[in-house]
């Protein structure tokens, strides 16, 4: 029996489908662990369903769940939330949010780390990231204590692991039912694999270069040992890298022919960025253990630090831990590390265009996105993404559509390049306003390659298999082979699926 041409063409076009998720409001579960305003959320979720959105992303806050004491988890509010999402016919991307909410761009809600953790910091403030002047940052525990059993007798890695195991046990019915499709593992401030180098609550403002965050006693000792082992006991952490709102050329470290280019600077930056790689690798291995056998993907988020990208120093990226220069790729090693965990790299700033940024910031979000997406695809991993700031205009949607399928749709099968999924930031009344909502609905339709909502990921080429244990650890030397720069894949200038034609 011959397949009708119409069905055949639809089956080909559906392979261009990119699922769309919407980020839920930060305070959807309150800081005292209640799921309030259920009727309002249901109304909003049904509107998303009307727009044929595939699912939602939600922060699952450590500071809420384990607030009553070590291993005293309370998942009740989140179970109620997930049931409502399921009833509305949507899927869930769950973020294991081991960071504080508050102090970053767009944070209108405050959820600190658990009090019993902060109390440890009262007597030992070095558990927090620290800048050169000794200012502590309580957004996230310093990776310097990842393997130190000083938080109630557990290491942070063990705490994160126990939390994820408890989530799996408590949400096993939702996992088995296929409601939860992705587990994004928070690996730093704002849930991103980076150092908290540009904190607004310490006075940073765009486009400041930020500051290195490795001056707690643990990282200081680790650097001193590493330098001594390398035959340079005299090397210290940088003293000449400036302050949060400096420009690169105002610092001895980042200016032309600055410290970052000499042997001392290169050694420091390699150490600083390698610590971040190892941190992510350790926690993602625990995530794979916790969710092994579940039909989910593990994901990690990388921040889109696009300012100063066109400066030789890439200073803002470098202070965040992304040692990315014109002759050194700072992102492909992260993708290679993720590959051993079958991980998805989730990247931000997909909506931005270069011309929208002020010239003095030497910003290049389009080039940054091309670099990170291309490097991830070259390492054989899936890449997902989101917009960095709320946008409702066709220009932003078209840019996201371009990045989702950089070479357009293929009417005869899967496209040459395609993102794993896109998460829109963020669900709220402004998105659901009449005009904004109509444009958003068109955007979702175009992300779906003009096809109707598809409940079966297999149809658009996403094969959902039980998560396996992480592959053997990749030696750091092999990870660093991926620092060799490569030209990004060619991207079209415009999407062939514009929101408004």
TrEMBL record:
Q: Which organism is it from?
A: Spinacia oleracea (Spinach)
| Gene3D superfamilies the record matches | Glycosidases (3.20.20.80)
Protein name as catalogued: Beta-amylase
Origin: domain of life: Eukaryota
Q: Which InterPro entries match?
A: GH, Glyco_hydro_14, Glyco_hydro_14_CS, Glyco_hydro_14B_pln
Q: Which residues bind substrate?
A: 59, 99, 107, 301, 306, 348, 387-388, 426
Keyword hit for rRNA processing:
no
Q: What is its EC number?
A: 3.2.1.2
GO MF term set? beta-amylase activity
The UniProt keyword set, sorted, is: Carbohydrate metabolism, Glycosidase, Hydrolase, Polysaccharide degradation
Any Pfam family from its record, for instance, is Glyco_hydro_14
* Family of this protein: Belongs to the glycosyl hydrolase 14 family.
Question: Which transformation does this protein catalyse, written as a reaction?
Answer: Hydrolysis of (1->4)-alpha-D-glucosidic linkages in polysaccharides so as to remove successive maltose units from the non-reducing ends of the chains
Q: Which residues form the active site?
A: 192, 386
What is one Gene Ontology biological process annotated in the Swiss-Prot or TrEMBL record?
Answer: starch catabolic process
């Amino acid at each position: 029996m011959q397949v009708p041409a119409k069905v055949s063409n639809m089956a080909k076009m559906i392979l261009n489908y990119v699922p769309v998720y919407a980020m839920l409001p930060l305070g959807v579960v309150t800081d005292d662990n209640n799921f309030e305003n259920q009727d309002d959320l249901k109304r909003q979720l049904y509107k998303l369903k009307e727009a044929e959105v595939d699912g939602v992303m939600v922060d699952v806050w450590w500071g809420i769940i384990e607030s009553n004491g070590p291993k005293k988890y309370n998942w009740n509010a989140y179970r109620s939330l997930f049931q409502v999402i399921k009833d509305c016919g949507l899927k869930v991307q769950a973020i294991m949010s081991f960071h504080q909410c508050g102090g970053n761009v767009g944070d209108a809600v405050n959820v600190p780390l658990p009090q019993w953790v902060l109390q440890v910091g009262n007597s030992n403030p070095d558990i927090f990231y620290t800048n050169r002047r000794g200012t502590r940052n309580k957004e996230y525990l310093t990776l310097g204590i990842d393997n130190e059993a000083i938080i109630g007798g557990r290491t942070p890695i063990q705490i994160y692991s126990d939390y994820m195991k408890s989530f799996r046990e408590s949400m096993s019915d939702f996992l088995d039912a296929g409601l939860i499709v992705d587990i994004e593992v928070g690996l730093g401030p704002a849930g991103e694999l980076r150092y908290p180098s540009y904190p607004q609550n310490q006075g940073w403002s765009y486009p400041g270069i930020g500051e290195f965050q490795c001056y707690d006693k643990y990282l200081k000792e680790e650097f001193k040992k590493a330098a001594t082992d390398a035959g340079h006991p005299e090397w210290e952490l940088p003293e000449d890298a400036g302050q949060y709102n400096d420009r690169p050329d105002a610092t001895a470290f980042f200016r032309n022919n600055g410290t970052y280019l000499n042997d001392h600077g290169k050694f420091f930056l390699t150490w600083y960025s390698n610590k971040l790689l190892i941190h992510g690798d350790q926690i993602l291995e625990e995530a794979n253990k916790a969710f092994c056998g579940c039909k989910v993907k593990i994901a990690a988020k990388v921040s889109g630090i696009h300012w100063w990208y066109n400066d030789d120093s890439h200073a803002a990226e470098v202070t965040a831990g992304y040692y990315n220069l014109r002759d050194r790729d700072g992102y492909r090693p992260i993708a290679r590390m993720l590959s051993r965990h079958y991980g998805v790299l989730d990247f931000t700033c997909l909506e931005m265009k270069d011309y929208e940024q002020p010239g003095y910031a030497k910003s290049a979000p389009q080039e940054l996105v091309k670099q990170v997406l291309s490097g991830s695809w070259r390492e054989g991993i899936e890449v997902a993404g989101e917009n960095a700031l709320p946008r409702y205009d066709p220009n932003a949607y078209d840019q996201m559509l371009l990045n989702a399928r950089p070479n357009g749709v293929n009417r005869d099968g899967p496209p040459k390049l395609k993102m794993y999924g896109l998460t829109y930031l963020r669900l709220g009344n402004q998105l659901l306003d009449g005009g904004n909502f109509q444009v958003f609905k068109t955007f979702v339709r175009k992300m779906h390659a003009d096809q109707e909502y598809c409940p079966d990921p297999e149809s658009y080429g996403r094969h959902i298999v039980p998560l396996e244990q992480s592959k053997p650890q990749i030696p750091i030397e092999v990870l660093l082979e991926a620092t060799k720069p490569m030209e990004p894949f060619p991207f079209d200038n415009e999407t062939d699926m514009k929101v408004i034609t």
